[in-house]
Specification:
Blueprint (H helix, E strand, L loop, with lengths): L4 H25 L8 H16 L3 H6 L3 H7 L1 H10 L7 E11 L2 E10 L6 E8 L2 E9 L1
Antiparallel strand pairs: 1-2, 2-3, 3-4
């Protein structure tokens, strides 16, 4: 006895809905941004600050995110670095913590000058294919 066409179409339709639901569920729950361990974030932030301290501003600039570059511009960034003498001094690591900026993870690394007072915050964000410097704050 053959299966009536209506039942066959109903089964095919239900199978398509189930497969579609599984695919949509996978797309919604997967995390395309790889995690960055706090120690790796600290190292990346330290390398950025070391480049600034030693005057390798273009090298530091190359490690910044697209958002950072559009916010500052290369010349404005150079002026900012020159206006903050603390960036020419050695720094000490204080902490690194993960935060969320809406659905996007950020890693916020805090440093302080080896001598004197102040605070330097380097924020890393995932930019296209890798973690890069997304913000720099000097107080």
């Amino acid at each position: 006895m053959a299966t009536p066409p209506r039942i066959r179409y109903l089964v095919i339709g239900l199978a398509a809905v189930v497969v579609g639901g599984v695919v949509i569920g996978w797309l919604v729950t997967r995390n395309p941004i790889p995690e960055l361990a706090p120690a790796a974030a600290q190292q990346k932030a330290q390398e950025f600050l070391d480049a600034l301290r030693s005057g390798r501003i273009d090298e530091a600039w190359a490690g910044t995110s697209t958002d950072f570059k559009s916010m500052y511009g290369r010349e404005r960034f150079r002026q900012f670095v020159k206006s903050k003498p603390v960036l020419a001094s050695p720094v000490e690591f204080v902490s690194c913590e993960q935060k969320m900026d809406n659905p996007l993870p950020l890693l916020e690394c805090h440093f302080r000058p080896a001598r004197g007072s102040g605070r330097i915050v380097v924020v890393l964000q995932f930019d296209q294919t890798e973690w890069k410097i997304g913000r720099l704050s000097v107080e």
